[in-house]
């Protein structure tokens, strides 16, 4: 029988707000007071620097970023520098890896597979590159970036898929510190706009299949109501 979990569709949110929410939910999941929870959302424009990040990979000056309303955050996910913004779908699972073999690498590959299956439905072939996390279209166009963290076998952060973000914003960074590759989106690959809700539905479906998890939708404001989970 499938395990039960919850899906939260959180809309477009500030990065620091969702980071704080993740931390609270992560703590509750470590204490086993809530089940697995998966967040699907978009962020307002920002640049994040991961645990292995290099601030020199931000090419735009602070004044330009301020004028454009793009905030910069240092965070505890894996990886280097990346961009988030509206039109990019982010999936943040907070799940207990003890239910999945305590295998962090297998978990990371499963998130990539979730994206690969999702965009295949829309007619976009993609795959992986050796020693380069994320999902790639062709040899050197990255369509999904990954950065995770695991503490007490509970996951945080996750993977982001470019559906139709402002691609010009990527010129302000060296994405993931890679100088020999470029970034793309579903809209660029298909030459047409894709509704975000369609992509969310497909990604959510593929998550449930890959993790054998039955996700019930819950409103964010109702999360405290399930903290008595046992």
Structure at a glance:
By secondary structure, this protein is of the alpha/beta class.
Topology diagram in text:
Elements: E1 3-13, H1 15-30, E2 36-43, E3 46-49, H2 62-68, E4 71-74, E5 81-84, E6 88-94, H3 104-121, E7 127-129, E8 132-137, E9 141-151, E10 154-162, E11 182-183, H4 186-190, H5 196-211, E12 213-217
Parallel strand pairs: 1-2, 1-12, 3-4, 9-11
Antiparallel strand pairs: 2-6, 3-5, 6-10, 7-8, 8-9, 9-10
Q: Give the terminus-to-terminus CA distance.
A: 17 Å
Reported by name, the CATH topology is BirA Bifunctional Protein, domain 2
CA-based gyration radius = 17 Å
**Which consecutive residue ranges, at least 5 long each, have pLDDT under 50?**
none
How many runs of DSSP E, i.e. beta strands?
12
Total of helices: 5
User: Hey, roughly how much beta strand do the residues contain?
Assistant: 25-35%
- Structurally, the number of domains stands at 1
Helix content: 25-40%
SSE pattern, N- to C-terminal: EHEEHEEEHEEEEEHHE
Structural class: alpha/beta
User: Main β-sheet: number of strands, strand sense, barrel status?
Assistant: 9 strands, mixed
Could you characterize what this model shows?
By secondary structure, the protein is of the alpha/beta class. It has a single domain, classed as Bira Bifunctional Protein, Domain 2 (BirA Bifunctional Protein, domain 2), CATH 3.30.930. The protein contains 5 helices and 12 strands. The strands form 2 sheets. Strands 1, 2, 6, 7, 8, 9, 10, 11 and 12 form a 9-stranded mixed β-sheet that branches. Strand 7 and strand 8 form a beta hairpin. The longest helix has 18 residues. It starts with a strand and ends in a 13-residue tail after the last strand.
């Amino acid at each position: 029988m499938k395990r039960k979990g919850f899906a939260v569709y959180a809309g477009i949110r500030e990065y620091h707000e969702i980071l704080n929410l993740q931390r609270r939910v992560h703590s509750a999941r470590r204490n086993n007071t809530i089940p697995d929870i998966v967040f699907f959302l978009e962020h307002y424009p920002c640049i994040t620097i991961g645990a292995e990040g290099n601030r020199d990979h931000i090419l735009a000056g602070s004044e330009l970023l301020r004028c454009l309303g793009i905030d910069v955050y240092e965070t505890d996910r894996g990886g280097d520098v990346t961009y988030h913004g509206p039109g990019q779908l982010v999936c943040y699972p907070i799940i207990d890896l003890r239910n999945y073999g305590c295998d962090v690498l297998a978990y990371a590959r499963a998130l990539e597979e979730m994206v690969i299956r999702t965009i295949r439905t829309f007619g976009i072939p993609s795959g992986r590159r050796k020693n380069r996390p994320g999902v790639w279209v062709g040899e050197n166009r990255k369509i999904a970036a990954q950065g995770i963290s695991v503490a007490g076998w509970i996951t945080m952060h996750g993977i982001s898929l470019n559906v139709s973000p402002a691609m010009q914003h990527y010129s302000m960074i060296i994405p993931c510190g890679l100088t020999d590759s470029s970034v793309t989106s579903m809209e660029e690959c298909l030459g047409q706009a894709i509704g975000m809700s369609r992509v969310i539905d497909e990604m959510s479906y593929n998550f449930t299949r890959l993790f054998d998890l039955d996700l019930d939708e819950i409103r964010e404001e109702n999360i405290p109501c399930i903290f008595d989970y046992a």
